[in-house]
Specification:
KH_dom_type_1_sf, RNA-processing protein, 2 domains, RNA binding, Ribosomal Protein S8, Chain: A, domain 1, alpha+beta, KH_dom, RNA-binding
């Protein structure tokens, strides 16, 4: 499996290769000519190799190393939104990023607090790290913002989604209580 990262993240990823190889029980080779990394499971678990690819890709997209390493566990997944797919013109791209971040980072912070998802904005990507339950909620909120919906509409959506999730979790936990 091959994975590439932005030039400014190459040295950081290279410095982590020994640790990632050891953790994943895999071999990682950097190809200087192609400027990419080959992740080889060495006849081990290919699933672990896929996780390491996700970690390298996340770091390349600007996710802090400590957060990217969480992808090695079973709890978190990564979702990537390419803003170029949303906006073909460079001008609105900065506007879309501004809507996602919000004044003083308020909107991004609210989305992260409501969903528990880490949101990282870099170049023309929005990277989401979170659970299987919460990634779709955060993604939907971001899509609403990208489509030009009012911030208050997005906040109401997040509030409703949070209430539904809490209700669902409560009903699930009631079903698991021992019968007396």
């Amino acid at each position: 499996m091959f994975v590439s990262v932005q030039d400014e993240k190459l040295d950081l990823v290279k410095s982590l290769l020994p640790e990632l190889s050891k953790i994943g029980g895999i071999e990682i080779i950097y190809n200087e000519k192609e400027k990419n990394f080959l992740v080889d499971p060495k006849n081990q678990n290919p699933y672990q190799a896929l996780k390491v690819v996700s970690v390298i890709r996340a770091i390349g997209l600007g996710v802090p190393v400590s957060d990217a390493y969480k992808l090695l566990g079973e709890e978190l997944i990564m979702d990537i939104i390419d803003l170029k797919q949303v906006s073909k013109d460079r001008g609105p791209l900065s506007r879309i990023k501004g809507r996602i971040i919000g004044e003083g980072g308020k909107t991004k912070k609210i989305i992260q607090e409501y969903t528990g998802v880490t949101v990282v904005i870099s170049d023309h990507y929005v990277t989401l790290l979170g659970t299987y339950e919460q990634i779709p909620v955060a993604r939907k909120a971001l899509e609403l913002l990208m489509k030009g919906r009012e911030h208050s509409t997005v906040y109401r959506f997040l509030d409703r989604a949070e209430q539904q999730l809490l209700s669902y979790r409560a009903s699930q936990s009631r079903g698991k209580l021992p019968i007396k």
